[in-house]
Write a structure and sequence with these properties.
412 residues, mainly beta, Immunoglobulin-like, 5 domains, 6-stranded mixed β-sheet, 45% strand
Length: 412
């Protein structure tokens, strides 16, 4: 066989510009060892510089999505490049592959394509759930060598068919005391993720989005009807209502305001009051000098037309289911009401009498003991510490006689 002497530099340049020459059957015609070495180098150099028209790991890659999710029993659907496909299109770039293989596909999915065609895809309806690592191999043509082949791993996640949520354990009604902790809990089943939405008396509670609704420290306003709505991609369901009842812990009675001592004139009215806190029901029993007064069983004790005998210490027993207590005693002083002296003065008469605090007094007069109308001759108000009052009234007598009477008005 005749050999041709070609300078190495010239050969390298030609191969760089025309990479397809590497596929020519020149090994059979070229016997020069120097030429053979230069040819292999030039071929490798051309491939490295990206001028080899081939699918290779160095220049062309698999460009379709490598993570895909589907649902068991639902035809595969993939969104790629802003479009939604009823399959996964298989693509490479910048050069197109014309032959593909896929190993490890889940049951129900199939690789489809024709050797020599750039259109290949994975399609079908998954028949099993799980995570599958699928080995993809793309070749320029079916018989391409390694330098015209690229590979990648496609992760296909198949989830079970979504089922609407169901509630297996409903929230239970609660009765708690003020200040105690409380919680409602629901147990739900269905395709995850499940979302929760609690409401009270028909109003959604912000941030109450877990399966447990917790009250660290219950207050009275927490009382109400609670419901939770459980949702997922397949639907939603609401729980039965659960009532939260908030009780104030039972407490024995305590006296907030004690009955107060009072002074009245005989014939006046007087009222004693007590203010009590504690758990109802609360009962009352008033006492005079520690003896029960029949029928006096309310927070107020009212006495009318008080006689002189009504003087004494008044107290009240207060009782509920927890305890019984007795108030401090309040003294009721009862004094007679009479004019103690009538003294003549230049312009009339000076009247004197013993007075009580918090009282107003009215002096009336007429000139007959048995007939005629009583006419107000004067009035005066006692001070807090008053014990004696007097008033000067003008004489209005027409018969030479003047009669007076004294009235009191109690202003507690």
């Amino acid at each position: 066989m005749k050999t041709i002497g070609v300078p190495a530099l010239v050969l390298a340049t030609v191969l760089q510009l025309f990479p397809m020459l590497r596929s020519a059957a020149i090994f059979e015609r070229i016997t020069s060892p120097v030429f053979s070495i230069i040819f292999r180098w030039a071929t490798v150099s051309a491939a490295v510089m990206g001028s080899v028209d081939a699918v290779s790991g160095a220049s062309t890659l698999i460009t379709n999505p490598l993570q895909v999710q589907g649902t068991n029993g639902v035809p595969l659907s993939v969104t790629s490049g802003g479009r939604t496909y009823a399959y996964l299109p298989l693509t490479t770039g910048p050069e197109q592959a014309h032959y593909w293989t896929a190993t490890g596909l889940p049951s129900g999915l199939t690789l489809q394509g024709t050797s020599g065609s750039p259109t290949w895809k994975i399609f079908g309806t998954p028949a099993v759930a799980g995570i599958f690592n699928v080995g993809l191999t793309a070749k320029y043509v079916q018989t391409s060598e390694a330098d015209r082949t690229t590979t990648a791993t496609l992760v296909i996640t198949i989830v079970g068919t979504a089922t609407a949520p169901t509630i297996s354990s409903q929230p239970s009604p609660l009765t708690v005391n003020v200040g105690a902790p409380a919680s409602f809990t629901v147990t739900a089943n269905g395709t995850t993720p499940l979302s929760y939405e609690w409401s009270k008396d028909g109003t959604v509670i912000p941030a109450a989005t877990t399966q447990t609704l917790l009250f660290p420290n219950v207050i009275l306003s927490d009382a109400g009807i609670y419901v939770v709505k459980v949702s997922n991609s397949a639907g939603s369901i609401s729980s039965t209502s659960a009532k939260l009842t908030v009780n104030v812990p039972a407490a024995g009675p305590s006296i907030v305001t004690q009955p107060q001592s009072q002074s009245v004139h005989a014939g006046e009215s007087v009222t004693f009051n007590v203010t009590v806190a504690g758990t109802e029901p609360i009962t009352y029993q008033w006492l005079l000098n520690n003896a029960p007064i029949p029928g006096k069983t309310s927070p107020s004790l009212s006495l009318t037309n008080v006689p002189l005998a009504a003087v004494g210490n008044y107290s009240v027993k207060v009782q509920n289911s927890i305890a019984l207590i007795t108030s401090t005693p309040a003294l009721c002083s009862v004094a007679g009401l009479k004019i103690s002296a009538i003294l003549p003065v230049s312009n009339g008469s000076k009247l004197q009498w013993s007075a009580l605090p918090k009282h107003g007094y009215i002096i009336q007069s007429r000139d007959s003991l048995t007939s005629g109308n009583w006419v107000t001759a004067g009035q005066i108000q006692s001070l807090l510490n008053t014990i004696q009052l007097e008033i000067i009234v003008n004489s209005m007598a027409t018969t030479g006689h003047q009669f007076y009477r004294l009235q009191s008005i109690y202003s507690p």
